[in-house]
Design brief:
The complex is a heterodimer of chains A (475) and B (469). Helices cover 41% and strands 12% of the residues of chain A. Chain A is α/β, with parallel strands linked by helices and 475 residues long. Chain B is globular. The longest helix of chain B has 28 residues. Helices cover 43% and strands 13% of the residues of chain B. Classes of the chains: A alpha/beta (475), B alpha/beta (469). Chain B: It is an enzyme of class 4 (lyase).
């Protein structure tokens, strides 16, 4: 049998990671409220499902955006023929405007610096192809999104060198950590071409503060390496402190612009992973020119460009959406973390993203990777929740898990919380605060628990008044 | 400035080719019937614009589908979230049914063997990543689509070695040409991983004969290599001989369940057959489960938008529509090709007999000042800048003989095509009328005519003039 490529037969696709094992387990037994109430609840998928009703209303009101009204059908031919890899001008303008609004209008984006890609997945691979040759390396702070192992390395031949961040300082990216990683790469004879940071962070759910960002910019300028900022969670910042983008920092400090590139997508901020809207925003003209040609391998469907152009150029819709989305994420995050704290489970303080970085170190039999894997298997098979183990994110410390909270409805969230509570009370009673232990019944009704939560006057980031328990998020 | 990769600074993206330079010129001065009647007419873009009315009327009758509705209910959320790289099952089924229909239902396709990609551009590159290592080679018959230089080579590091086909036998693939290409690759120390053919051919517009297909199967069997058949124009076969797919040939030779079966891979797309290049719908169909598995994971880098998958699954599931579309589309393409051929004939220009595609392979060897590629470039520049037609010179398609040009006919209105032909006729008249006698022109054409009989009868320059009234 004639050989196929090493790339095809090897495991550079990264799918043998436990990150995906959990998904596979979920897929064989997925939770369904009526058909499969004992199935596994998916908490390993960072999807934003909280605003669909809001978006759907807009789509129904604007059939021309979907090319299905008479006005829309007139645009069908033009749209169907449009394969220019520059992308529709109105699409780029609308996305550039959206990106600016998400950053509070503090920075403006140039539509001509936007290059399309097949989602952020395609964007990352494309940037790696542009910035590095096979055998060269990128530095990536840990813990990081498992997909990077595939996206940046698989077909490009580029290596990843971890910048090890620790829980002792909340996983901050320090200049020390950066220098250490850089030196390690040198020792291993790897030429470092760039640093990739995800801000807001996946899996941490927090944002980089100004000092850290300045430190990063200083570092890459000093080493003369590229900085790739993955900002795909920018609009999921639901609470103070305010998001600071790389695009803002470079206006405040000295920086060689040619080193700066941003990866963006609508998969998380808008909840549209199926539409494959990714992009590279580069301040480097040579990179733009090359990336644009490469984008031929993953252009955004013109049908989708048209839809997005219409949607995101509607200022009223965008402004309301940004507020609504933050509101929904804030509530869900607050409720989820509060409920967990009730059973003694903590997580890294976070103000963004679609997940929390859950701290289960105290539940480990010992501080080892094996113990983490054991605990993870218990969570999947007994608690019946698919969560993602920290090791799959290359976390240097066992016991952390990424748990998604925005990809399910309220009912499913309650079921998940009930399972967690049951598990903690049955197996880890020592960790659970006394107050809750004394309540003999686990059969508190869902609405009763929610009322407890609401009655604590949890403030929304945007309204000056406490939310009435009667005003419930309907997802 | 930080250093960039070699890919940025090399020119394997292929965009310095005249194929793309002609486009750039066109974009600076594009023809418009009203706004720019003296602009350049685009005849270098293989688009199918002849059958949009059929799609538009379908959309009119089925507004729900584009509007994210199914049975009156909104499925916006379901579509927005659908990112499974296995693809929308209903879409894969509808696409494969369409492909089978195009092949006269002589072959059946298995939905577990199809991988959806962002256009054929992505499909071809992905197959290279799956089948070959950096420095390996694929053999391609010339002339071939200029985009292959980028799609197959740029980011993959794979090499292309041409299988030289000539006008002496209407550019058919021969056993000796295959063997010659293989040997040349060996001499360059390149490991040949496979052959890639485009069937129907771009730029020739012809379908492969059974003999050629049998030849290919024998060749890949003997050399133990892969065969990729890019069949993106299979739905544009508008006259006989009928399209014969490589899958049909394998079936007829009882090669299912053999090793060879697993070494054959098909590339498809809706950009040409349905005229939807903007929607980025491509596919790989492979009989090798390992290739399917790897390609499926790689498709993450360029999935088809779920919005588009849903719309097209509805259109292609409408069998009444697809039957009507295929038939009407063929008829219109056939008519349009005849118009082009007749117009060329009036200008004293022949083209290769063809039964498919969105273009003709036009013979302008008799208009060259010398039998060289420099002369071809000279002629091409005059046609782009003076005659104001963007056509694609054969050298950009790696043709081994100067003087051939690909001219598209399906991406413009009838009136625009007529105008283009008039311009061409005036041009030819101006360069031949004064310099040469009628007899000299007749002789020079006869000299370049192949020994095969062209469908067009040869008329004297004088006779032709009389026909034009």
């Amino acid at each position: 049998m004639v050989a196929i490529s090493k790339i095809a037969t090897g495991d550079g696709h990264g799918e043998n990671s436990p990150y995906f094992d959990g998904w596979k387990a979920y897929e064989t037994n997925p939770f369904h409220p009526t058909d499969r109430p004992d199935g596994i609840i998916q908490m390993g998928l960072a999807e934003n499902q909280l605003c669909f009703n809001f978006i759907k209303k807009w789509v129904m009101k604007h059939p021309e955006a979907s090319l299905c009204s008479a006005q829309g059908v007139n645009k069908f031919k033009e749209t169907a023929l449009f394969q220019d890899y520059h992308g529709m001008p109105e699409f780029r303008q609308a996305v550039a405007k959206f990106m600016g609004k998400v950053r509070g209008g503090r920075v403006e984006f140039d539509p001509d610096r936007i290059v399309m890609s097949g989602g952020a997945t395609g964007a990352h691979e494309m940037v790696a192809f542009c910035l590095a040759d096979p055998g060269e390396a990128f530095l990536v702070p840990t813990p990081y999104y498992p997909g990077f192992d595939r996206d940046l390395r698989w077909r490009t031949g580029v290596e990843l060198v971890p910048v090890v961040c620790k829980s002792s300082n909340d996983f901050k990216i320090t200049t020390n950590a950066l220098e250490t990683a850089y030196e390690k790469a040198k020792e291993d004879n790897l030429k470092v071409k760039g640093l990739l940071v995800t801000n807001p962070s996946n899996p941490l759910g927090n944002i980089l503060d100004r000092d850290t960002l300045k430190g990063i910019v200083e570092f890459i300028n000093e080493k003369n390496i590229h900085l790739v900022g993955d900002e795909i969670y920018a609009a999921t910042v639901f609470m103070e402190p305010e998001f600071v983008s790389i695009s803002e920092i470079i206006e405040e400090v000295e920086c060689k612009r040619d080193l700066i590139h941003i990866v963006y997508s609508l998969s998380k901020d808008m909840g549209f992973p199926g539409f494959r809207v990714g992009l590279v925003y580069s301040y480097n003209d040579s990179v733009l020119s090359c990336a644009r040609k490469m984008s031929s391998f993953g252009l955004v469907s013109s049908q989708t460009q048209h839809l997005i152009a219409s949607m995101l150029s509607d200022d009223d819709f965008v402004d309301s959406f940004i507020v609504e989305s933050k509101e929904q994420l804030f509530r869900r995050h607050k409720y989820f973390t509060w409920s967990l704290s009730q059973v003694g489970i903590g997580s890294l303080k976070s103000n963004a993203g679609l997940f929390i970085w859950m701290d289960l170190r105290k539940l480990l039999k010992e501080k080892t990777l094996e113990a983490e894997m054991d605990l993870w298997r218990v969570i999947i098979n007994e608690v019946k929740l698919n969560v993602s183990p920290g090791s799959s994110f290359h976390c240097n410390e066992p016991g952390w898990f990424r748990v998604c909270f925005a990809n399910m409805d309220d009912h499913t969230m309650e079921v998940a919380l009930l399972r967690i509570r049951t598990f903690m009370l049955e197996h880890n009673k020592a960790m659970v605060p006394r107050k809750l232990c004394s309540q003999s019944s686990l059969k508190l009704s869902f609405s009763r628990r929610r009322d407890d939560f609401m009655s604590q006057s949890i403030m929304s980031p945007h309204s000056p008044l406490p939310q009435s328990p009667l005003v419930q998020a309907r997802t | 400035m930080g250093l960039l990769s070699r890919k940025v600074t090399c020119n394997s993206h292929g965009q310095d080719s005249s194929y793309f330079l002609g486009w750039l010129e066109y974009e600076k001065n594009p023809y418009d019937e009203v706004k720019n009647p003296r602009g350049i007419i685009q005849m270098g873009l293989a688009e199918n614009q002849l059958s949009f009315d059929l799609l538009e009327s379908w959309l009119d009758k089925n507004p729900d589908v584009a509007g994210f509705k199914r049975d009156g209910q909104s499925i916006f959320k379901e579509l927005a979230l659908f990112q499974d790289y296995h693809g929308f099952p209903a879409f894969k089924k509808a696409l494969l049914d369409f492909m089978a229909e195009i092949r006269g239902n002589k072959v059946t396709f298995d939905p577990n063997r199809i991988v959806l990609t962002a256009g054929a551009t992505s499909a071809n590159e992905t197959l290279m990543f799956c089948l070959a290592e950096q420095g390996d080679a694929f053999l391609l018959p010339t002339p071939y689509y200029p985009g292959f230089d980028r799609d197959l080579r740029w980011r993959t590091g794979v090499e292309i070695v041409p299988i030289k086909c000539t006008s002496s036998n209407r550019f058919k693939i021969t056993a000796s040409a295959l063997e010659d290409a293989y040997q040349r690759a060996q001499r360059k120390n390149l490991r040949v991983k496979g052959v890639l053919v485009t069937n129907p051919s771009n730029p020739l517009g012809t379908t492969m004969t059974r003999e050629e297909l049998d030849l290919l199967v024998n060749f890949i069997t003997d050399k133990e290599i892969h065969l990729i058949s890019d069949e993106i124009y299979s739905g544009t076969v508008f006259s006989s001989p009928a399209f014969v797919s490589i899958m049909e040939v394998l079936k007829d030779q009882n090669l299912e369940k053999t090793e060879i079966w697993e070494r054959v891979h098909i590339v498809y797309s809706l950009s040409k057959d349905l005229g939807l290049p903007g929607f980025r719908v491509g596919a790989i169909y492979s009989n090798d489960p390992i290739v399917v598995a790897a390609a499926t994971k790689m498709s993450s880098f360029g999935l088809v938008s779920s919005q588009t998958q849903y719309l097209l699954s509805a259109i292609l599931s409408d069998k009444k529509f697809t039957k009507e579309y295929i038939a009407k589309n063929h008829k219109r393409l056939r008519k349009r090709r005849s118009m082009l051929v007749a117009g060329l004939e009036k200008a004293g220009i022949d083209c290769l007999e063809s039964n498919a595609g969105l273009f003709c392979w036009v013979d302008m060897r008799h208009l060259l000042s010398s039998d060289t590629f420099e002369a071809e470039m000279e002629l091409w520049k005059r046609i782009v800048y003076d005659v104001k037609l963007n056509i694609s010179p054969g050298s950009s398609c790696h043709c081994t003989e100067p003087g051939w040009f690909r001219v598209c006919f399906a991406n413009m209105s009838e009136d625009t095509l007529k105008l283009a032909m008039q311009r061409l006729k005036s041009f030819v008249g101006s360069i031949t009328g004064h310099d040469r006698s009628h007899q000299e022109l007749k002789n020079s054409r006869r000299k370049f005519r192949s020994k095969w009989v062209f469908r067009l009868s040869f008329q004297s320059f004088h006779d032709r003039e009389q026909d034009e009234r």
